[in-house]
Write a structure and sequence with these properties.
Largest interface: A-B, 14 and 18 residues
Strand order of the largest sheet of chain B: 5-4-3-6-7
Number of helices of chain B: 5
Oligomer: heterodimer
Distance between the termini of chain B: 63 Å
Radius of gyration of chain A: 25 Å
Helix content of chain A: 55-70%
Amino acid sequence: MKIMLGILTLSLFATAAFAIDTEEAMEDPALQARYEKIIDEVRCLKCQNTTIKDSNAFLAGDLRREIRRMLEEGMTDDEIFDFLVERYGDFALYKPRASGKTLILWIAPALFLLGGGVVLVNIIRRRMALPIDVDAAEENE
Amino acid sequence: MWKYFLPLVIFGLFFLLLKTGMNDIMEGKNVNELPSPLIDKPAPQFELPSLTDPSKTVGNASFANEIAVVNVWATWCVGCRQEHPFLMKLAKSGSVPIFGLNWRDNQAEAQRFLQQLGNPFVDSAFDADGRVGIDWGVYGAPETFLVGADGTVLYKHLGPLNQALWDEYFVPHIDAAGNTK
């Protein structure tokens, strides 16, 4: 029973072993590191909620191969992202560039935070203005 | 007084924001369809061996100076089989030449596909490793591009084509191009 349980527990960690990218690592470890970072930031257009690192769709494989080629040709990360955006649009990147079209994506979180902050400050101010009710405070203790 | 209406106003704005996101779904559009950044830009350059006759090549030069349809297809693609009868009909009408980009396919199987079901294409480029597909921003066959006489991409459709879609989205571009000549 204990052994069974042990095996089951171990199997929970087994998913890490299923690597999608079966290509050999590149010779230059610095290039390999950049490669892994890039493929983790590019959306697989065929299966739209995974990165090309996590997708085994052949399109993802093709894009990994292209990115590898571009890295070996000495292109910068930005040039590679440009290459993808030119072909597939802003949606191809998980971290979209700040442009007119994607501006709302970038400023919306700040706006929401600001709005929440204003509401919070208002509530606190109103509460502070209230007379302190000693009886109620004691009751709550 | 306005205090009581403020939450309602905020809710209303939020509702509108979410509703615009829902519109496409309510209208039955394919929400996975992405606008192609290639529209109104020059069609990506390519030159590939012809699927049917590897001694010949197919590329932008094949449809220079005329409005043409470039259809991305493959034998493994279900939607391509679905739209195939319409492409045959369109080819027969002779309104625009159709060129194929046979994408990531098996050459023998692709040739058999055309022999058995008919060949609507003037010619098909054989893109075995998908390299040209990437340049055209292809991510799911079938995809259909309309390329103008000056070589710019006028329109792109994702998914199986049919007469209604053709009439609604392709014909206006073709008519407009015809009028300016």
